[in-house]
UniProtKB/TrEMBL annotation:
The keyword Hydrolase is annotated on this UniProt entry: no
Primary enzyme class: transferase
Chemical reaction(s) catalysed: D-fructose 6-phosphate + L-glutamine = D-glucosamine 6-phosphate + L-glutamate
Domain Glutamine amidotransferase type-2 stretches: 2-220
Protein name: glutamine--fructose-6-phosphate transaminase (isomerizing)
SUPFAM superfamilies registered for this protein in UniProt: N-terminal nucleophile aminohydrolases (Ntn hydrolases) (SSF56235), SIS domain (SSF53697)
Recorded GO MF terms: carbohydrate derivative binding; glutamine-fructose-6-phosphate transaminase (isomerizing) activity
EC nos: 2.6.1.16
Residue span, SIS domain: 283-423, 446-585
Keyword Transferase: yes
Keywords: Aminotransferase, Glutamine amidotransferase, Repeat, Transferase
Amino acid sequence: MCGIFGIITLKPRAIGKDLVAGGRRLSYRGYDSVGCAVLSDGKIDLRKDVGKVDEVSKRLKFSEMYGDRGVMQLRWATFGAPSRTNAQPHLDCNGDMAGAHNGNIVNTPQLREQFIKEGHKVRSTNDGELCIHAVEKYYDKGFDMIESIRKAYEDLRGDYAFIIFNDGEKRLYAVKKGSGLVVGVGRDEMYCSSDLPSLLPLTKKIIFLNDGEIVSLSPKEAKFFSISDGKEIKKKTVSYRKSPEYARKGGYEHFMLKEIHEQPTAIEDLVELLDESKYVDKFLSFIDDSDKVFLAACGSSYHACLLGSYYFGNIAKKFVVPVVAPQFISQYGHAVDDKTCVVLVSQSGETKDVLNAMNYAKEKTDKILGVMNVIGSTLMNSSKAYLPLAAGYEVSVPATKTFLNQCVMFLYLAKRMAGESCRDMGELSKLVKSTLNSTTRDCKKAAAYLGRWDELYSLGYGSTYGIAKETALKIKEITYSHCEGMYSSEFKHGPLSAVRRGYPVMFISSPKDTDVMVSHINEVTCRGGKAIVIAERNESMVKNADELIQLPHSGDYFSPILATIPAQLIAYYMSTRRGIDPDFPRNLSKTITVD
Ligand code: M6R
């Protein structure tokens, strides 16, 4: 998704370099074009094009851009195809105001038509340009920048954040409505960005904006204003100690493979954090004291919630409903009251669908909990209590270590809630490591077979249902083949008709469900289908599976977590065999900040 990064400095300097570095730190979000606008010698220097940060900035010499204020933008196309004209930043009609946005202006068609009728020079079909004309419209009528932004805010529907500056006042302005926006306080310079981690290499002094707030930055001060009445508001500066580790591939061919191999350490760090955290009990008390509990999330995070609900139900005997975040509003919204606890689960903590669910729930209950990986994210800042995933920086678009840590977190919480000891959780990291070592060869072999098909199924039962769905998502995401994840007992209710000679079906089984799985496997193999099974070794599985990818013996609750490893590896090897870069699959983005 789009990312915006702005800088204002006391003296003009080669700020292009810092803008590019900021943009690079936002590039994990996924994008198709990049651009930079800097005020240089009283004129706005705008350079932009389709492509990757390093390639475009080298070609257009962003690093040489010199001035005292500027903005960099990474665009992930929604309104308007990826093109140089649609790339951001954009200029106003006369080229004396520039800015860029992140988010979606949902009334783009109407506004665009209106601005064209009013005589604005609308150059692109991108919604970000409308933010600039919306401010320009009022500024040209004589309103100051704060008033102009306030009025533009009324015209621009949707959720967004934008940064804007003009060639007159030595200020950088930004506004937040639904999308991330964070300010960094430097020495004689100020920064603002879509996220916190991208600012930390420049400063540790951070100010978070809330929705409906404007910031006016000069090199020495940040002033905040409320959209509702235009009055100045005081904000707290928060100090951070550490910069995030900016990832390198560290000898691996892709970040995805590196992140898969980081899972033993990620689990160890998480279990240690939970063992020592005084917030676990507080977090659990909200769940315990509630009549209704929902786990709301999207994509991989939702799949972890499926397993989470299984753990809470079977271990802690707590009825917890897993739900896709937008469906939470439409299907269960009516049931949310002050005795309801809503746990929002998100790697990024910025997923728009998740934040919508959070904002909806907040109107009805104050029991809003968050589980996220990105520290300083909107979800973290808006939850009543939160627990971090402690998985470290995840670069690759496909979630791997953050997904696994979500599953581990839920198992830990369910055990604690049930009053069970979590000491055995210390073993998980070693088991994951040995699964990585023992299954890689078989996964490559399975990937070679599965990669010959453009459609397949991944089936789970009980605790492995969420893992089967996650396996299917990983395969779809990075191989571009269709893979459907299902409850294995549902297969005979329709999809079984797809099975023919050699047709591939993956089965993921926990030890407990061996018997039922074996019968589902046979429904496929007796019709000529090929059953590739991920499970612990036992006689029955050996006899019935066409190929068995063996998990170490670990029991019913650990085995779904371990089964995730071969599933990730299979998807990874299928992807690379097809020549796809699994880190940046087409059309996708790491952080989805639109509806
Ligand atoms: O940041 P989140 O966990 O909220 O993201 C939700 C989904 O977009 C995400 O899990 C997505 O499905 C993964 N990239 C898939 O690997």
